[in-house]
Amino acid sequence: MSAGGGTKAVLAALAANLGIAVAKFIAFLFTRSSSMLAESIHSLADSGNQALLLLGQRQSTKPADETHPFGFGRSRYIAGFLVGIVLFTVGGLFSVYEGIEKLRHPHHLESGLIAIIVLAVAIVLESFSFRTAIKESRHIKGDATWWRFIRDERSPELPVVLLEDLAALVGLVFALCGVGLTLLLDDPIWDAAGTLAIGVLLLVVAVVVAIESYSMLVGEAAAAPVVAAIREALASAPSVTAVVHMRTLHLGPDELLVAAKIGVDEGLTTAQVAAAIDEAESRLRAVTSITCRIYLEPDIPSAVAVAEAG
């Protein structure tokens, strides 16, 4: 995926969350609702997350140098991992702490109607952000399920924004239920329960984001269909007799390292081997839109058989 769609979704989420965070915090000052405070911190954390994602995108475009010969593409994965940490420490843990405190020391709401109005407006704005993320993701997702898209997509921005926006909408519903039940039943324990539910929700999302980003930081291969297409392209090249073994590794969302040992016809001259490798590389690049760094090692069938037997 190019960064363009992800950037549009991130910017939409950032604009929505900054405005929502200010509105929620003002509502908290009037109502003293713990659910509103938790949602204010949630939106503030989300704004910081989007800023991290944008910074990661910017860092990833830096040209390669002697110290970083494969470039800075993984900066986007580092940003995604930090987003998980921010969600965990700033959003989730604070909300859980605040919810437990309000369960122990209930506090009656003031001007609850203001909280309900702000939450309703926030749901509309978050829905706009979520709709943008879905629209940008749909043409990349194809026929895959949304969960499979989140698990398999190698660009971190869209899955992260999708999860954040979904968590934000569900969190707003929790807050709305907490405030609404508190006003209806005149019992502040429901506001505390809403706050605690928001915290647990954020922790779950944070763990998912962190696990997926960590996996890419450690190093993941290309998706199975891409690996199969690359292997087939190499095997179809003239003078190539076999793909002995192959490894792929994402250097970044839009850059792939491909290393393979290929069998070539016995008796080829050095020039012919070089030509066979060039053709194999050309066919490989034709089957994937991802920028590839390709390293191919030729071997003759007899040497391959000896190596496999050994």
From TrEMBL:
One Gene Ontology CC term in the entry: membrane
Pfam families: Cation_efflux, ZT_dimer
Cation efflux protein cytoplasmic domain sequence ranges: 227-290
Domain Cation efflux protein transmembrane, chain residue ranges per copy: 10-218
Primary localization class, coarse: membrane
GO biological process: zinc ion transport
GO molecular function terms attached to this record: monoatomic cation transmembrane transporter activity
Membrane spanning residue stretches: 12-30, 77-97, 109-128, 158-183, 189-211
Localization in the cell: Membrane
Domain of life: Bacteria
Topology of the protein relative to the lipid bilayer: Multi-pass membrane protein
Alphabetized UniProt keyword annotations: Membrane, Transmembrane, Transmembrane helix, Transport
Record-linked Gene3D superfamilies: Cation efflux protein transmembrane domain, Cation efflux protein, cytoplasmic domain
Designated name of the protein: Cation diffusion facilitator family transporter
Native species: Frankia nepalensis
